[in-house]
Amino acid sequence: MDGLVESGRSALRNALERVGRGWGRVQERRPLSHDLLESDDAYLVVFDAPGVRGEDVDVTFLDRTVEVSLERFRDFYDGYDLVFPGRGVSLSGSVDLPRDANVTPEGANATLTRNGTLHVEIPKRGGSSDVDVVEEDD
Questions:
Q1: Which residues form a coiled coil (predicted)?
Q2: Integer distance in angstroms from the first to the last C-alpha of the chain?
Q3: pTM
Q4: Domains of the chain from N-terminus onward
Q5: 4, 33, 82, 113: least CB-packed within 10 angstroms?
């Protein structure tokens, strides 16, 4: 009977792992959720960026488009086995600013917050460049 129970557990773990990896791939294919805000002086794009560190984030601004790519890693926990690997690890997204946006990459900044959002602020004026990412202090 123990062999049957163990076979059932093994089959369940294998099924959960396959479903979890499939769900992770679905997340990687979907663009990051975001909000686009505008003030008199700048545009602010807020991306969901859970579980990443500043050095694992790339932000590029080109022709009124903000592009973000994230690489996150799974932490390992002593005494625990991964049963359902459901979080995607390579995530990306982009946002097109309005056609009439007159913006510049000079002075643009990106802040990774403790609550798992990435704030990309682009001043109004004109241009294209990479954007440095800083991590919010604790």
A1: none
A2: 52
A3: 0.69
A4: 1-74+84-126 (2.60.40.790)
A5: 4
Q: In the 8-state DSSP scheme, what is residue 36?
A: E
Nearest to 73 by CA among 59, 94, 54, 53: 53
Which positions ≥6 away from 23 have C-beta within 8 Å?
Answer: 86
pLDDT of residue 81: 80
Residue pair 96/65 in contact (Cβ under 8 Å)? The answer is yes
> In the structure, what pLDDT confidence band is assigned to residue 126 with cuts at 50, 70 and 90?
very low
Question: Which residues have C-beta within 8 Å of that of residue 36, sequence separation ≥ 6?
Answer: 43, 44, 45, 95, 97
| C-alpha span between 20 and 62 (Å, rounded) | 35
Two tokens, residue 106 = 């000079």
> What is the residue type of 24?
G
Single-letter amino acid, residue 121:
E
Which two structure tokens, joined as six digits, stand for 61?
Answer: 């601004």
CA 8, chain centre distance (Å): 36
- The answer to whether the beta carbons of residues 71 and 54 sit under 8 Å apart is no
The helix or strand, by DSSP H or E, that contains position 26, with its residue range, turns out to be: helix 2-29
